[in-house]
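Hi C.,

You asked whether I'd gotten around to modeling the 109-residue construct. I have! Everything is below, sequence then structure, no commentary in between.
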Amino acid sequence: MAWLLRDGEVLASVEVALSLAARSRGLLGKRRFEGALLLRHTRSVHTIGMRFAIDVAFLTHDLRVIGTTTVPPYRVALPRRGGRAVLEAEAGAFERWKLVPGDALEIKG
């Protein structure tokens, strides 16, 4: 299992979508999601067909947060300039984690 960290602090478990199919599927079909999902080589996401709202963080190639938003079901999150990856979590997670633009994230494990 991999972990999402900020300044050495574990924020959550994280799944990394490695294939195009995994990135395309994202969190579709899930009723809930504990932890986070990292989608590298992704600049935008949608929640069409999703059952719950998600928090979305737009990240640089080195996993620095450049923007966050909450996306309700059946919406599209537009890309952010400089975005090279997206982090998804169940809505409310970023507030609990106090995730803000400028945070440098890392994946361990």
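If it helps when you're writing up: The CA atoms of residues 81 and 101 lie 13 Å apart.

Thanks,
B.
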